[in-house]
Design goal:
Elements: E1 5-9, H1 14-24, E2 31-37, H2 41-51, E3 55-58, E4 70-71, H3 74-80, E5 87-90, H4 98-106, E6 110-113, H5 117-133, E7 136-139, H6 142-151, E8 159-166, H7 176-180, H8 184-187, H9 197-205, H10 207-220, E9 227-231, E10 237-243, E11 248-252, H11 258-266, H12 281-284, H13 298-309, H14 313-329, H15 337-349, H16 357-375
Parallel strand pairs: 1-2, 1-5, 2-3, 3-4, 5-6, 6-7, 8-9
Antiparallel strand pairs: 8-10, 10-11
Helix pairs in contact: 3-4, 4-5, 5-10, 5-14, 9-14, 10-13, 13-14, 13-15, 14-15, 14-16, 15-16
This protein binds nicotinamide-adenine-dinucleotide (NAD) and magnesium ion.
Length: about 375
């Protein structure tokens, strides 16, 4: 039997490189059959030299790249549907990951999903593609991996609620006024996780937790009233599930994405892996929990409201956030304006129809345009 084939979309990013580190310890279990990157040709070349995958794509590739490499956004879908690929690790950042998720599920693959934006923008489409093509989604996000592990096969009918933990980000204890004026350097200093720039800013604004609430809604079929968020600064308890009888299960571990990535590849099995950081409860104590300061971090409420509204509203929330974060990282928008930009875009476009992919892309584009016109300088 050939080994299960893995495609890594976004192999040059934080999740992509972490996944290759994990896979290097499991070469006897999985074969890397495709890698894709956006523009980092140098790192992609190194990865190709190490792994020799049959399919390579560089979205922004040019004439200098090897002739065997594929380029353009369509190459992501090609990578995700290669016949010798069984598991697609989608580690692309942003709505740009949606089409590959849909294509992989439509082709019956397992999608190890880090790209939460796929579910936020097109949650219903993702469910539909999985049903039609026979594919399955296994989350890579640590909180959702925790919930999946706590559920251990039980469905939403056994669950009273889930509690998603949030580190609180670098501004957890900052006065609200100071948060509004935070610099890019401040926002990129995450207390517990080392990640790509976009998700690091999302973690500072708590927009990331809003994306994760919507992600949990679609992944586990839970109502928004069944999903709570609590701040847990140590990032040791990755999330909790409260069952109907009141019993609460939690999944714990040191903050490292290696475990949720490995678990998404091996689920429902568990593989021996001495490289995963060991957990020492004494070293990890004490664990604390706090309520979210919604006044300082309005993105969380805005995102949950968009999730509840449904239709195109989550796509508008996501598109506005992506555009606002890009402007913030460019030094063209203050941190506090990210939430204002999202609110403006939602006020104008949340009522747009959802449903089909084209309608969702239209809503995404409208949200980005509004943010640029209103706030970009
Ligand atoms: P990153 O910025 O480090 O990496 C992004 C990867 O996607 C890179 O390989 C890049 O080349 C590729 N990419 C970017 N734009 C693209 C485009 N338009 N088309 C095709 N490829 C593109 O990001 P990351 O931190 O690795 O995050 C990736 C995803 O995983 C995000 O959805 C994020 O929310 C999610 N996630 C990340 C972490 C983490 O610890 N980093 C944890 C949980 C979830
Ligand atoms: Mg997470």
């Amino acid at each position: 039997m050939p080994l299960p084939g893995v495609a890594i979309l976004g192999s040059t990013g934080s999740i992509g490189t972490t996944a290759l580190r994990v896979l290097a310890r499991h070469r006897d279990r999985f074969a890397v059959r495709a890698v894709t990157a956006h523009a980092n040709a140098t790192l992609l070349r190194t990865q190709v030299a190490q792994w020799a995958p049959p399919f390579v794509a560089l979205v922004e590739g040019d004439a200098d790249m090897p002739a065997s490499w594929h380029r353009g956004a369509a190459a992501l879908v090609e990578a995700a549907t290669q016949p010798d690929v069984d598991i697609v690790l989608n580690a692309i950042v942003g709505a740009a990951g949606l089409d590959a998720t849909l294509a992989a599920l439509g082709a019956g693959k397992r999608v190890a999903l880090a790209n939460k934006e796929s579910l936020v923008v097109g949650g219903a489409l993702v469910a539909d593609a999985a049903m039609r093509g026979g594919g399955t989604v296994v989350p890579v996000d640590s909180e959702h991996s925790a919930i999946l592990q706590c559920l251990s096969g039980r469905d939403a009918s056994a669950v009273r609620r889930v509690v998603i933990t949030a580190s609180g980000g670098p501004f957890r204890e900052w006065p609200t006024d100071r948060v509004r004026g935070a610099t890019v350097q401040d926002a990129l200093k995450h207390p517990t996780w080392l990640m790509g720039r976009k998700i690091t800013v999302d973690s500072a604004s708590l927009a990331n937790k809003a994306l994760e609430v919507i992600e949990a809604h679609f992944l586990f079929g839970l109502g928004y009233d069944q999903i709570d968020v609590v701040v847990h600064p140590q990032s040791i308890v990755h999330s909790m599930v409260e069952f109907r009888d009141g019993s609460v299960l939690a999944q714990l571990g040191v903050p490292s994405m290696e475990l949720p990535i490995l678990y998404a590849l091996s689920h429902p099995d568990r593989l021996e892996d001495a490289g995963i950081p060991a957990f020492d409860p004494v070293a990890a104590s004490g664990l604390t929990f706090e309520t979210v300061r919604h006044d300082a971090f309005p993105c969380l409420r805005l995102g949950i409201a968009a999730g509840r509204a449904g239709g195109a509203a989550p796509a508008v929330f996501n598109g506005a956030n992506e555009q606002a974060v890009a402007l913030f990282l460019d030094g063209r928008m203050p941190f506090g304006a990210i939430a204002e930009a999202i609110e403006t875009a939602l006020d104008r476009h949340a009522g747009l129809p959802g449903g089909a992919r084209d309608a969702l892309w239209h809503a995404d584009a409208a949200a980005r345009r509004t943010v640029k016109e209103t706030f970009g300088c």
